[in-house]
Design a protein that fits this description.
By secondary structure, this protein is mainly alpha-helical. Helix content is about 80%, strand content about 0%. It is globular and about 85 Å long.
Length: about 525
């Protein structure tokens, strides 16, 4: 089957699987992987070989950049300690645990090859985590730690992977050189991403076209990744750093139209790439199984089960001490950041789904690498087991532990206060402008001043019961939706009576107003 035809089939199948996952209330990533496995055995599809280098450069930069773009930087910085403990410590600890188990079960596997396997399956996947976390409402801090970990851990695992592969093929390894390579790759990648992000923001300041802004934003992540890889730095951290720069500076250089366009286009790109990457993971099963036809199926199943179980257990073994020990040993830390309930590390431990990075790095192993086919098979089984077992039960576990947050009755107190301050700033600016040039604008802007006064009074929560005020605002927003829908129905009735350009403009106004209301209600 031709590549283009296969691509169309995968996209069409992803739509059907996304609909089925929503109706069945299962994680989209799980549905896509299982759908890919089913497609792999459909006659006519054939064996689909995934180019590992292409997979990494095609899927990782935009998906990591998009996640970093949305990252809450103050929250990320506040939680940097637990994020690094998972992104660095958990990766190395898990890699060591998997290497020991694999070496015990497969004595013929060299130690460095076993460590390579550990490095391949150690990092939870950013794409998998985002796909699963979208369907549950976790406390903000848990989400921040999980997303922050998934942005960084690929870098640490890939450095360990490269060192282990080189040591396996060469037969020697220098610890000092490995440490130097790790820090060099990390700092170099972060700098490359920062540099590309700053250049991109300079370009945005020169552009006045939304489509060009969107195109440059898409190219920035790829450029950061490729630039870092060319100088043997971490392309993963480069894409993350670039996304962080763009996210932090978006309100400085992007126009409102550009931000709206970016949100729409990037949502589509994320869905499309996420769907393709998980379906391609499933499609690899046929080729992987075919290369192991001569092995004992029972033995392979036992090894795969042991490695997958080690992945899950080792994350628990690391996460609980990483959460509790620093606070137990440091009273100042405990006072500044109190001990969280046991349910927090439980969810952090269980949310360890693997994905595209693990499969791509396994497939990237040289053909002469010791135990290559077995390592690829074990990596696939680890991805499948963590996605199916952990991905499908994570929501149930969160609800069982009572951690799922209710739908927020927006606005929350801090959001409402910020909205009140914005309205007040707008009113002050208008009044100051009128005072400076009252003769020209005084009469013409009287209604505008009154409008901003009403906004400021409506947004203010001072001296009011927050819960009551919130309920009133939500009711008002619901009524605005009813009014918008009535206006849209009338617009539809007048389709043939209004000139086409004017009709589209009026429709766009209603769409923007509806989007604003739904965003305020937390539905967008």
């Amino acid at each position: 089957m031709h590549t283009f035809e296969l691509l169309l089939i995968l996209i069409a199948a992803s739509v059907a699987l996304a609909y089925a996952a929503e109706r069945l209330r299962i994680p989209l990533a799980v549905a896509l992987v299982l759908g890919g496995i089913a497609l792999a055995f459909v006659p006519g599809i054939g064996t689909v070989e995934l180019d590992p280098e292409l997979a990494l450069v095609l899927f990782l930069p935009p998906l990591l950049q998009a996640s970093a773009y949305r990252t809450d930087w103050p929250a990320f910085r506040f939680n940097l300690r637990p994020i690094l403990l998972l992104a660095l410590g958990a990766v190395f600890f898990t890699a060591a645990a998997v290497a020991i188990v694999a070496r015990l079960l497969v004595p013929s596997l060299p130690w460095w090859a076993a460590i390579t396997l550990g490095a391949i399956v150690a990092p939870p996947d950013a794409v998998a985590a985002a796909a699963v976390l979208k369907q549950v409402r976790l406390p903000k801090r848990i989400v921040t730690v999980l997303e922050g970990e998934s942005l960084i851990n690929d870098a640490s695992s890939l450095v360990l992977y490269r060192c282990a592969v080189a040591a396996t093929l060469a037969g020697t390894f220098s610890f000092g050189q490995g440490v130097l390579q790790f820090f060099g790759a990390s700092l170099g990648g972060a700098f490359a991403g920062w540099l590309v992000g700053r250049v991109a923001m300079w370009i945005f300041a020169l552009l006045e076209d939304t489509l060009l802004d969107i195109t440059v934003s898409l190219l920035a992540g790829f450029l950061a990744y490729i630039l870092a890889e060319q100088v043997h730095a971490s392309g993963v951290l480069a894409a993350v750093a670039c996304g962080l720069v763009l996210g932090r500076k978006q309100h400085a250089e992007f126009t409102g139209e550009s931000r709206l366009g970016l949100a729409t286009v990037w949502s589509f790109i994320e869905f499309l790439l996420t769907a393709l990457v998980f379906m391609l993971i499933g499609l690899q099963l046929r080729g992987i199984v075919g290369r192991l036809e001569g092995d004992d199926p029972a033995r392979l199943a036992l090894i795969a089960l042991a490695v997958s179980a080690t992945l899950i257990v080792s994350r628990f073994a690391w996460t609980f001490p990483a959460v509790w020990l620093p606070r137990a040993l440091s009273p100042s830390l405990r006072e500044r950041d109190p001990m969280p309930p046991w349910t927090y590390p439980t969810v952090l431990s269980w949310a360890g789904m693997r994905g595209v990075v693990s499969l791509a790095t396994a497939l990237a192993l040289p053909l002469r690498f010791p135990g290559r086919d077995l390592i690829v098979f074990l990596a696939f089984c680890a991805i499948l087991a963590t996605l199916v077992v952990q991905g499908t039960t994570l929501g149930w576990l969160i609800r069982r532990l009572g951690l799922e947050e209710d739908e927020a009755a927006l606005p929350e107190s801090d959001t409402a206060q910020a909205r009140a301050e914005l309205a007040t700033a707008s009113l002050d600016a208008v009044q100051e402008h009128l005072d400076d040039d009252a003769s020209e604008h005084g009469d013409a802007a009287a209604e505008l001043v009154e409008e901003y006064k009403v906004r400021a009074e409506r947004a203010s929560i001072e001296g009011q019961d927050v819960e009551t005020k919130t309920g009133q605002l939500v009711a008002q927003q619901r009524l605005r939706l009813v009014a918008i829908e009535a206006a849209r129905e009338r617009l539809v009735e007048q389709t043939d009576q209004i000139e086409a350009d004017a009709h589209r403009a009026l429709g766009a106004e209603l769409d923007l107003e509806e989007q604003q209301v739904r965003r305020a209600l937390g539905e967008a």
